[in-house]
Design goal:
Helix content of chain A: over 70%
Largest interface: A-B, 21 and 29 residues
Structural class of chain A: mainly alpha
Helix content of chain B: 25-40%
Distance between the termini of chain B: 46 Å
CATH class of chain A: Mainly Alpha
Order of helices and strands of chain B: HEEEHEEHEHHHEHEHEEHH
Strand order of the largest sheet of chain B: 6-7-8-3-9-10
Radius of gyration of chain B: 19 Å
CATH superfamily of the largest domain in chain B: P-loop containing nucleotide triphosphate hydrolases
Radius of gyration of chain A: 21 Å
Oligomer: heterodimer
Strand content of chain A: under 5%
Number of strands of chain A: 0
Shape of chain B: globular
Largest sheet of chain B: 6 strands, mixed
Number of domains of chain A: 1
Number of strands of chain B: 10
CATH topology of the largest domain in chain B: Rossmann fold
Largest sheet of chain A: none
CATH superfamily of chain A: MetI-like
Number of domains of chain B: 2
CATH class of the largest domain in chain B: Alpha Beta
CATH architecture of chain A: Orthogonal Bundle
CATH architecture of the largest domain in chain B: 3-Layer(aba) Sandwich
Shape of chain A: flat
CATH topology of chain A: MetI-like fold
Number of helices of chain A: 9
Chain lengths: 217, 266
């Protein structure tokens, strides 16, 4: 029994070390893709047709092809053209571009769900487009899109496991290495617990923001 | 106030035309608003009342015609041509008008007080502390001092509309536009909003009001404009419209609507 506890502890430390990369990739992706998603959403509803078409093409491609394929493309595919990105850079870039595509559509729908009376009231008060968006529309969009953004944030935790295919060692890979060495199911169980812990923290965090933003309802 | 001020035209509209698709909503509209005048616009739905109002602050664009606000040209358009007035000029002129909407359009994520101070601070550059003093005075005027920290979702429709009036007044307009201000209110809340508007009329605020409340129209209006199918078919004193109308369409309309309103009150 004592041996088993020791084994679990050692295995956990090993897996947690692997999860450092998962967490790093996670935060880099979130940090860039949310602002990028909002910016692209604003561009997608702009009055410039070519801009709308360009963004539409982008979300079509990146939501319509597997993230795995995109990862292959940035890491192995670009190398053919002499662009050799370090694994982490390639992974972060792919995740940011992929997740921004989903978030763009979420925020676009959010912006379009705001009543046109809000724009009219802003205009009647002589606010310009920038002021209207920043002060009136986007704060309401943020509130409305917290639940779908939370969904994306949870999916992202699990999607980070895909980096194994470009040779990176993450949480899941560490667990699999232990499994291969010991032929025991415990490492997988530990990995599951670590994933659950991470998603729990994320859900808790989003719930907090949701409560903060819903005082006006 | 000099005589010249009194005679100044706050709004002049000449030969206004506008269509939505094939439907002509404004069909050669001409009229003037004097300083301090309260004009109520009545007429069947779809007659172009709201559209006319919305053309005066740029929420709708006319197809052709000329609009001047306090002597300055706000819109000047020949059919099929571009407006001769730039958006920047329009923005400066439209600052003279405040608007109150049927559905209030308060900012739901801002408290009552924040709704009022928002535009003065970010548009006019008023200092926050000054804006708050001004907003508190306006909220007192509409009887809502005790609700200043409430969010719009926590107050009644009548209270929301009074906040909307305070918010519009916060920008110091010379002219107030009211687009069916009581149409989405429960009957028992209509009075409190009308009272605020009547008080503004006593202060000689120039106002244009679209409404279906005939008793209120009669009480508050200096002139009543009757619109039908995009045209102004009467522009008269209330007494004339209600007691001695010339046009048969006005008779039918007023009979129909007053019957409905008295039924509702029973």
């Amino acid at each position: 029994m004592e041996n088993y506890i020791q084994y679990v502890l050692d295995a956990s430390v090993f897996i947690l070390k692997g999860s450092i990369l998962t967490v790093q990739l996670y935060f880099v992706t979130i940090l860039f893709s949310i602002p990028l998603g909002i910016t692209l959403a604003l561009m997608k509803i702009s009055r410039f047709r070519s801009l709308r078409i360009a963004i539409g093409f982008y979300t079509w491609v990146f939501r319509g092809t597997p993230l795995l394929l995109q990862l292959f493309f940035t890491y192995y595919g670009l190398a053919i053209f002499g662009i050799n990105l370090p694994a982490f850079t390639a992974a972060a870039l792919t995740f940011i571009i992929n997740y921004s595509a989903y978030l763009t559509e979420i925020y676009r729908a959010g912006i379009e769900s705001v009543d046109k009376g809000q724009y009219e009231a802003s205009k009647a008060l002589n606010m310009n487009y920038y002021q209207t968006m920043k002060r009136i529309i986007l704060p309401q969009v943020v509130r409305r899109t917290i639940p779908p953004t939370c969904n994306e944030a949870i999916t992202l935790v699990k999607d980070t496991a895909l980096v194994v295919v470009i040779g990176m060692g993450d949480l899941l890979r560490s667990a699999k290495e232990l499994f291969a060495r010991d032929f025991a199911i415990t490492p997988f169980a530990i990995a599951a617990v670590v994933y659950l812990l991470m998603t729990t923290v994320i859900v808790y965090f989003f719930r907090k923001i949701e409560i903060k933003y819903s005082i006006y309802e | 106030m000099s005589n010249q001020d009194l005679s100044m035209k706050m709004i002049q509209a000449r030969n206004l035309f506008k269509s939505f698709g094939t439907h002509r909503v404004l069909n050669d509209v001409n009229f003037e608003v004097n300083k301090g005048e309260v004009i109520v616009i009545i007429g069947p739905s779809g007659s172009g009342k709201s559209t006319l109002l919305r053309c005066f602050n740029g929420l709708e664009e006319i197809e052709s015609g000329i609009i001047t606000i306090e002597g300055e040209t706000f819109a000047s358009k020949d059919p099929g041509k571009k407006d001769k007035i730039t958006p920047k000029q329009k923005k400066e002129i439209s600052a003279k008008l405040g608007m109150v909407f049927q559905h209030f359009n308060l900012f739901p994520h801002r408290t009552v007080l924040e709704n009022v101070i928002e535009a003065p601070i970010i548009v006019s550059g008023v200092k926050k502390s000054d804006a708050i003093i001004m907003a508190e005075a306006l909220l007192e005027k509409v009887g809502l001092s005790d609700k200043k920290n409430a969010y719009p979702s926590r107050i009644s429709g009548g209270q929301k509309q009074r906040v909307a009036i305070a918010r519009a007044l916060g920008m110091n307009p010379d002219i107030m536009l009211f687009d069916e201000p009581t149409s989405s209110l429960d009957p028992e809340l209509v009075g409190e909003v009308q009272k605020v508007i009547i008080n503004l009329a006593r202060e000689k605020m120039t106002m244009l009001i679209v409404t279906h409340e005939m008793r209120f129209a009669e009480e508050v209006a200096d002139r009543i404009i009757f619109m039908d199918e995009g045209k102004i078919i009467a522009d008269e004193k209330p007494d004339k419209i209600f007691n001695n109308p010339e046009h048969p369409r006005i008779v039918t309309f007023i009979d129909k609507i007053t019957m409905r309103q008295s039924n509702r009150q029973e």
